[in-house]
Amino acid sequence: MMNLIAIDTALENCSVGLVAGERTVSRVRTIGRGHAEILMVEIAALFAEAGIRPDALDRIVVSVGPGSFTGLRVGIAAARGLALVRHLPVVGLSTLAAHAYRASRLAADERPILALLPGRGGEAFGQLFSADGTPLETPSSRPATEFAARATAGGFAVAGAGAALLGPGFEPLHLDSAPAIETLLTLGAVLDPASHPPKPLYVKPPDAVPQAGARIARRCSIR
């Protein structure tokens, strides 16, 4: 059986999980910010609790977003660092895909699932999946009202924290924000690392961009 570690720092949780033989252990802390300060401590505690060494790993899975810019970089850097030392494959898993998979296990019908996360200014990040969690489109960012209209017109099930922005008339399969670490462990064991690389998934470009055309020349003075 595969020995697999999962890392999630995409949103408010700092979560790690480990499958070692027949045993599964996890550590989940809701912290909001400060993932860099505690992630490696949590990983070390996870190995100690499971009673195995890092060189016993076969694979790593890490959440790649949408999520916090800083949080994503922390988790992905840790995953890549472990992989580099141990020459291990790494699976990058979308937060929206994790939410869709969890929703597929809760659904009582075969409707497509619209996975949603809240954005800024009344917008949401969303992606449509089949009833079994297979992606049907690429992620997008748009006003929550547009996602609400899509879900109504298509008869989609909705899931994820962004579903709370859609207004009345919807019964989300779940309202999770951070992905479940158990989902990362499950999907990380079966997804192909070649088609799911550990690269950050930024649905929108950064709000702030460097000046290009109107750059002000610097002045240096020595006193």
How would you describe this protein?
The chain folds into two domains: 4-95 and 178-188, ATPase, nucleotide binding domain (Nucleotidyltransferase, domain 5); 96-166, Nucleotidyltransferase, domain 5 (2-Layer Sandwich), CATH 3.30.420. The chain is of the alpha/beta class. Residues 212-223 have low confidence and may be disordered. The protein has helices spanning 35-50, 69-86, 95-106, 144-154, 181-188, and strands at residues 4-8, 13-20, 23-30, 59-65, 90-94, 113-118, 123-129, 140-143, 157-159. It is globular.
The radius of gyration computed from the alpha-carbon positions, rounded to a whole number of angstroms, is: 19 Å
Main pleated sheet? 5 strands, mixed
Estimate the strand proportion: 15-25%
Output the CATH class name of the largest domain: Alpha Beta
CATH topology of the largest domain: Nucleotidyltransferase, domain 5
Can you tell me the CATH architecture of the largest domain?
2-Layer Sandwich
Briefly, what is this?
With 223 residues, the chain is of the alpha/beta class. 29% of the residues lie in helices and 24% in strands.
Keywords:
four-stranded mixed sheet; 24% strand; Nucleotidyltransferase, domain 5; disordered C terminus
Layout: helices, strands, pairs:
Layout: E1 4-8, E2 13-20, E3 23-30, H1 35-50, E4 59-65, H2 69-86, E5 90-94, H3 95-106, E6 113-118, E7 123-129, E8 140-143, H4 144-154, E9 157-159, H5 181-188
Parallel strand pairs: 1-4, 4-5, 6-9
Antiparallel strand pairs: 1-2, 2-3, 6-7, 7-8
